[in-house]
Structure formats: structure tokens, C-alpha cells
Write a structure and sequence with these properties.
Elements lengths: L5 H12 E2 L2 E5 L20 E4 L4 H5 L2 H4 L28 H8 L8 E6 L14 H4 L6 E4 L1 H14 L6 E5 L8 H12 L5 E6 L5 H5 L1 H4 L8 E6 L5 H8 L6 H13 L4 E6 L7 H15 L7 E4 L5 H12 L9 H16 L2 H4 L8
Helix pairs in contact: 6-7, 12-14
The structure holds iron/sulfur cluster.
The site of iron/sulfur cluster (SF4) has 11 residues, from loops.
């Protein structure tokens, strides 16, 4: 099978992602994504995500919210829909923001999302349509950081619930890190009490490195967190999932190391997609590789369920025709192995009873 070179792809898409100090932001209302969660669309270009869509969590006491009650998996994982396998869909950024800034994680659960158009991978499970990930200017609009923050402030003012987090997502924002610098500086200059959460697909340090002087005082700030999403637990799975050449699997670890070396409050996502054969072994080797970066990094992993959103279905079908179907492995198998068998082999119960942000 032919896999592509993501470095070349990054060069091409990046040239369309920035123009005169403005960034190409996805037009959500023409992306199929607007059908995923229609009530969370704020305008043609901006949406929010509720990181904790869970009634029990919202009505719990603050003590319970920080207790192990909401950690890990429900007991009957084999008989519930995949979306209910984890007690909380995602801990972060709500917990990481509250842990670092003080307060209640529920004050940080409504997350204003800036979705840059453009990505250097072509994941078979991605919920963003391919024509957006190639950074097609006709499917977005260029915004300056000032315009984005101004839209955020007006959405925050209208919001009934607290809106205290801005997430820069994509696509892959770390191939246009200028947006991180500009948005962060805008937050700082306006003296806003906001937590900034940044997504990366960890494909390369090239653009981060070229801006390292501007970024060096941003990633170690209290109000900044970064999540790196690893694709696959071995190079063969990586290429099937992303379409990228297998040697780029290792780049993800190098990029994660780059963030860690800069004192970043760094987290990991791992989609629950592992191709058949040796699943437990693949996950165990992945744990060992993360431990080489930091002995506690596996405890900062959140395994993600992959949902068949309308946008994702288009990519499932397209990738299948290219010979890169999704794994047939039940995602529950990955959850069960990771949380119930593999992590307990490496870590104490005390460590397993902590939220990712509480892990040093
Ligand atoms: S899942 Fe993320 S890394 Fe993969 S193609 Fe989509 S935006 Fe890019």
C-alpha cells in the first residue's frame, strides 16, 4: 500500500492555513459536523463542546467530583453503548483547568472551540471531512486572533453556563503554531481569566521549533495545557489509521518529548483503535514507550471512543476504499485492557485513583 509523506503535506496545507496574520477557521455549518451536535453551534465558524455531558457529575458534590467515583470505566462495559463505557467521556480540559487555576471542574466544562482547517494526516476515523483537512479556503474564513477572542467574549457573555476555556483544535494547530502565540498573547493582553487547551497530532516539531522563542513562555504557563493524540500503538497500525508513512510513528514520541522538555502540562489521547492480533502486547509496548518519555505519562492517557458521526462515516467509507478500513476490534476490548489490566500492572491503586491532572 502507498502511504504519503506527512511533512510534504504539512508544507502544502500550512501555506493555505495562514494569510496576512489571519488563520483559516473551518466553516462548521458547511462541514457535515453541524449535524453531529447541532445545538452546540454558536455561529457559522464557532462551536462549543461540553466536556462533561453527564447529569450525575453535574449534581455531585465537589468532593465527589474529585473522588475516584468518576474515574475509569463503568462495570458492565459489554452491555452498554460505547459512549457509556467510560464514566466521563473526557476528564480534560475541565479537570486540568480547575486543578491548575483553582475552582470546580464544572466551571470549565463548556469549551469554546477554534477549529483550524488543515491537517497533515488523513485519519480513517476523523470526524472532519477531507476537503476541510486539506485547508480549502472556500470552506472556511480567515480570522485574526483579535477577532476570535472578540467572538469568544460575546459568546461567553450570552452563555448561561460558565465559559472559561478556549480550545485550539483542528485539523492540526501545531503546524501553524503562530495561532497559539497570537491567541495566547491576546488573552494575556486583555487580561482574561481563561484556560487555553491546545490539541496536537504530534506529527512534527518543525514549526514549533521554528517559533520556539515565541512559544517558550507559553507552554509552561499555569493556564495552558496541551494534549497530544497518538495514532495507533505500533507503526503498522499508525499508517493504516493515518495514511502516513510508518517511520512517522516515532515522530509522535519526539514531539511529545519536545513538549515535556519545555515544562508543558502535557496529556495524551489514544483512540481506542487497535488492529487485531497481539492487542495486549501492542498496548504494553506503547506503555513502555511512553514511560521512556516520563515514568508517569501512561497515567495521563485518556483512551477515546470513536463515534460514527456523519463526518466520520464519510471518512470510514473513503478510507475503506483506499484499503485502510477501521480495525474490527471492539473498542471495549481496548478500554478493558488499558484500564483494567495493563495500567494496574504498572501502577499502584493510589496512582490509579487520581485524575490525570493530579499525576506529577
Ligand atoms: S483525526 Fe486529527 S490528526 Fe487525524 S486527520 Fe483528523 S484532524 Fe488530522
Amino acid at each position: 500500500m502507498n502511504f504519503f509523506n506527512p511533512s510534504k503535506r504539512a508544507e502544502i496545507v500550512r501555506s493555505r492555513m495562514i494569510k496576512n496574520g489571519k488563520y483559516l477557521i473551518t466553516k462548521i455549518t458547511s462541514s457535515v459536523q453541524e449535524t453531529n451536535v447541532p445545538h452546540k453551534i454558536l455561529s457559522d465558524y464557532f462551536r462549543y463542546k461540553d466536556y462533561m455531558d453527564n447529569k450525575e457529575w453535574f449534581s455531585a458534590s465537589l468532593k465527589e467530583v474529585w473522588s475516584p467515583k468518576f474515574l475509569g470505566l463503568v462495570e458492565n462495559i459489554w452491555s452498554v453503548p460505547i459512549r457509556q463505557v467510560k464514566k466521563l467521556e473526557l476528564q480534560n480540559p475541565s479537570y486540568s483547568a480547575a486543578y491548575r487555576l483553582g475552582g470546580d471542574p464544572r466551571e470549565y466544562s463548556k469549551v469554546f472551540t477554534i477549529q483550524v482547517s488543515g491537517c497533515d494526516f488523513d485519519c480513517n476515523y476523523c470526524y472532519v471531512p477531507k476537503q476541510i483537512n486539506v485547508a480549502n479556503p472556500e470552506l472556511g474564513r480567515y480570522f485574526s486572533a483579535k477577532e476570535m477572542i472578540s467572538f469568544f467574549l460575546s459568546a461567553k457573555q450570552k452563555s448561561k453556563e460558565p465559559m472559561n476555556v478556549i480550545r485550539i483544535s483542528g485539523g492540526n494547530p501545531t503546524i501553524v503554531p503562530e495561532i497559539i502565540v497570537d491567541v495566547y498573547n491576546e488573552i494575556k493582553n486583555q487580561n482574561l481569566d481563561v484556560y487555553l487547551w491546545i490539541d496536537s497530532n504530534l506529527s512534527t516539531v518543525k514549526y514549533l521549533e521554528s517559533l520556539k522563542d515565541n512559544l517558550k513562555d507559553i507552554f509552561n504557563q499555569k493556564n495552558v495545557g496541551v494534549v497530544g493524540c497518538f495514532k495507533g500503538t505500533c507503526k503498522e497500525d499508525f499508517s493504516l489509521l493515518t495514511g502516513a508513512e510508518p517511520e512517522y510513528y516515532q515522530r509522535q514520541f519526539e514531539t511529545a518529548k519536545w513538549f515535556l522538555q519545555r515544562g508543558t502540562d502535557f496529556y495524551v489521547y489514544l483512540p481506542a483503535l487497535v488492529y487485531k492480533n497481539n492487542i495486549e502486547e501492542k498496548l504494553s509496548i506503547f506503555v513502555e514507550k511512553l514511560k521512556e518519555l516520563d515514568k508517569n505519562l501512561p497515567l495521563r492517557v485518556e483512551v477515546l471512543e470513536i463515534i460514527d458521526y456523519p463526518g466520520a462515516k464519510l471518512n470510514f467509507e473513503r478510507a475503506e476504499k483506499l484499503g485502510r478500513p477501521l480495525p474490527k476490534t471492539d473498542q471495549r476490548t481496548v478500554f478493558d485492557l488499558w484500564y483494567n489490566r495493563i495500567l494496574p500492572k504498572f501502577y499502584s491503586k493510589e496512582d490509579l485513583n487520581k485524575y490525570c491532572c493530579e499525576i506529577a
